[in-house]
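General statements about sequence and structure are easier to judge against a single worked case. For one protein, we set the task of working out the structure tokens from the amino acid sequence alone. This step matters because it turns folding into a mapping between discrete strings. The amino acid sequence and the backbone structure tokens for this protein are reproduced below.
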Amino acid sequence: MENFKMKAGETSAETKTVFSYPIHTHTYCEMTLYSPFDGNISVNNQDISPDTVTAILVNPFDFHKIDVKNDCGAKYIKISFDEGCLAKGNVLETSFRLDGINPNGFLASLFAEAYAHRDEKVYFKSLINAIVCRISTDGEKISSASVTGGYKAASEAVKMINENFCSCITLQSVAKSLYITPQYLSQVFKSETGMGFAEYVVRMRLGKAAALLAETSDSVTDICFLCGYKNLSHFLRSFKREYGLSPNTYRKNVKAKDKIAARNNLNRALIKNI
């Protein structure tokens, strides 16, 4: 499960295939370099079409999500870090977007270099600061979410779901934990996230299932129960309704695309060395 909190000064980096992920928020900064894909990235209800190589820098607590329409095996490099990693001059007051990035240019190479040296803490943090400086200087600001009472309630509810969606979590239990009524939580959750409470939980579970199908060899049955479903038939129906494919077919398609991408990368490397 993705972590939505980080310790002071903590960092991480990963590269994976782009997949749909429901709206969420977390307590740390996140910047991601996306290769082009057919779909949409949304930050604070502002939609971004990744028709070119695109970098997104998300400020803590800003809502964001990814919708992939046609799975094409596109990749991303994601770097997550606590704000304590930033130099004094790098103060993030909002999220940023930067489109039309040259895949062989300076910023893309910085992301690749940071991922390659993610275990070298001092050098990694210097690269993080260089990337933040570049995106915040050349990029376009994305307005931060307004911090209202409704936003705070929805944000807290989202964090609780993010940390517990694989277990039994309900609108009533979350509302009780936040000392508000289920009716009020339902209203502000829909207003702030654009979807109902139950729909969000389902999206989180299915998004996690899709990631496990793509990245592990766990059985469909195991993934079903790992993601909070109690009934395999219900899971299979929900997954096909969301992705248009059965879990097994989805996995085969992702694996096939990964093999093609790996073969193409090998061919390019061989040609380069001739």
About this structure: Residues 247-272 form the longest helix (26 residues). The first strand starts at residue 11 and ends at 17. Residues 240 and 246 are 5 Å apart (CA to CA).
